[in-house]
Amino acid sequence: MVSLAHVQSSNSRIASLLPPRLVAVFVGATSGIGEASLKEFAKHACQPRVYFVGRSQEAGHRIAAECKALNSEGEYTFVKADTSLIRTVDHVCSDIKSKEKAVNLLFLSTGSLISTKTSEGLPFGTALITYSRNRFILNLLPLLQQATALRRVVTAFCAGKEGPVSINDFQGWKVSALSARGHASSLVTLSLEALAKKAPDVTFIHDFPGPVKSNLFRGGQGAAIFALNAVFKAIGPMMTWYSNQECGERHLFLATSARYPAGSDGDVTSGVPLTEEIAVARGTNGASGSGVYSVDLEGESSGRKVEELLANFRKEGVVEKFWKHTEEEFKRITGLEVV
């Protein structure tokens, strides 16, 4: 366990130990996890340049103003976009590429329990959690590799909850509700392993934020969404929720600590240096500092059971099969492998 006190101590050193004008892109940042993490980055980074993407213009204006109040030396640019659409992701990334030569941090927290189909033929929830996130990473990977001091991707979903994958139904159309979380969580982690092969000098982290209040049902309609809302309202008062502030603080630690180096680093110079009490994290392949991490809500590696599951996926070629499928879907939708 990485204590909250250690997290806060590490975060407090960001401005003095990392260079000024770090460039960050937050996708899904107009509520919940993304908003909290963005605000912690704004608070602690020195003269940050931030692009944050979401659907609500009203929330975007509010958050930009609140970030400016936290750190007046930062620049905060809101990008209104429906990131369930791959073509829209390409447009957002092209705009960022036209303005920046490097990106230090890409933080992804989009998600939804809505089960409708997008206009591009993907399940809405799956589009946000896997395809859209992968497209953002793939498009911005060259800018991440151009960065100095920090080159990191953090994707918040259900790390540690990886489970069996339906290799004949990657999109999850027929995956049962009980199996959906494990299926999707595995695909998120396996995607990062595929991307790390393209960019071993970048850190890739899949994490589980814990029980944090967010807008997973926003925009949903119908009996199923009504029932899920009713269930959450009933059990909500009985649950122990993580505060949004602690969630943001822990995500900032994941985004900046040398505990999670890239696989090709060879040392731990990328990020806020560690103290003696904290060791370099174990990666998804079981090796210390491997560059791809599946971590729980307290920053610890997901454990041997998950590592064994992922090792079996690698032996069966699931990483390659899913990435080939992903590239085929990108080509079907956009005609382009990357923008």
TrEMBL record:
<dbReference type="InterPro" id="IPR052228">
    <property type="entry name" value="Sec_Metab_Biosynth_Oxidored"/>
</dbReference>
<dbReference type="Pfam" id="PF00106">
    <property type="entry name" value="adh_short"/>
</dbReference>
<dbReference type="GO" id="GO:0016491">
    <property type="term" value="F:oxidoreductase activity"/>
</dbReference>
<dbReference type="InterPro" id="IPR002347">
    <property type="entry name" value="SDR_fam"/>
</dbReference>
<protein>
    <submittedName>
        <fullName>Uncharacterized protein</fullName>
    </submittedName>
</protein>
<keyword id="KW-0560">Oxidoreductase</keyword>
<dbReference type="InterPro" id="IPR036291">
    <property type="entry name" value="NAD(P)-bd_dom_sf"/>
</dbReference>
